[in-house]
Amino acid sequence: MEIMMNKVMVGDSIELIRKLQDASVDLILSDIPYGIGLDDWDVLHANTNSAYGGKSPAQDKAGAVFKKRGKPINGWSEADKKIPYEYQEWCSTWANEWLRVLKPGGSVFIFAGRRYAHRCICALEDAGFNFRDMLGWTRPKAVHRAQRLSVVYDRRGDQKSADFWDGWRIGNLKPTFEPIIWAFKPYKITIADNVLEHKLGAYNQDKFEQYFGGKDNIFECGMAAGESGLHPAQKPIKLIEALIDLVTIPGQLVVDPFAGSGTTLAAAKSLGRYYIGFENDERYAEIAQKRLHGL
Ligand SMILES: C[S@@+](CC[C@H](N)C(=O)[O-])C[C@H]1O[C@@H](n2cnc3c(N)ncnc32)[C@H](O)[C@@H]1O
User: Fold this and answer.
1) Strand partners of residue 148
2) What distance lies between CA 25 and its chain's CA centroid?
3) C-alpha span between 83 and 44 (Å, rounded)
4) 104-114: average pLDDT
5) Residue bearing the bigger pLDDT, 237 or 40
6) Does pTM surpass 0.70?
7) How many whole angstroms from 30 Cα to the centroid of ligand 1?
8) Which of 74, 90, 158, 251 is the 20 to 30 A CA-CA neighbour of 97?
9) Which CATH code for domain 7-46+82-139+177-293?
10) Separation of 260 CA from ligand 1 center, angstroms?
11) Which ligand 1 atom is the nearest neighbour of the CA of 34?
């Protein structure tokens, strides 16, 4: 399959990226699978034990969200403990190629989830990337699913424990923060010369301030009215536009190897950048294509 500019290519990202030329890409911006079992595409490990792959009535009720995730109350096994390392190994299957296709000074922005982002950073560093910063995106609204412990004991008929542990929960605090990894391909000349040669390496603070009213590396952004519903992991287009404007100029090439509903590609198109997306699920690739045609 020949890679085409301004298209979503249906196929395996790890295969398709090999077809891009060395030093041909200005920015890779991707919301990669997180390895936390959010959906079928988010299971990246060989763990087949029932605690991880199991289903509970609560999971059924939650619909598409976390349909593959087991619960810690089922107990963790040796296979569960390998999941983080397997996630890092998976990141290493594409990190070298991402480095190869980027121009010197070119950035990667990766939404990798809170739990295994550190594994992704290690894979990037091992491949030769320089880790620049961890940006903090906060959401005005976040779904909080931490289960009340007293409810578990209530169901067991253990009133004494239910009373003692009243107010305690299983899981996480409300997940309003998401990390965005920012790394770049090292350059061999000075940064000022690299900017002149490749138009990459610096960042546009003035543009960024127009989006979020400040230069902080923590910023809030929610979905605009009517924007959601295209993908369970869909990101706000304003957030992606801000990141594209932060490190590129019009006419440069943005690649999203895990494109989903095409948010990165739509943002790139509306900002006058070239774009290429890879997505192995035909349903999402079609949604992305339609979205791009409508712009
Ligand atoms: C986190 S989602 C991206 C959602 C996107 N940010 C949006 O706004 O719609 C990651 C996407 O990667 C796709 N994917 C997972 N593994 C893939 C692979 N090996 N090759 C291509 N796409 C893959 C999944 O189908 C999923 O749609």
Assistant:
1) 169
2) 19
3) 8
4) 96
5) 237
6) yes
7) 9
8) 251
9) 3.40.50.150
10) 4
11) 1
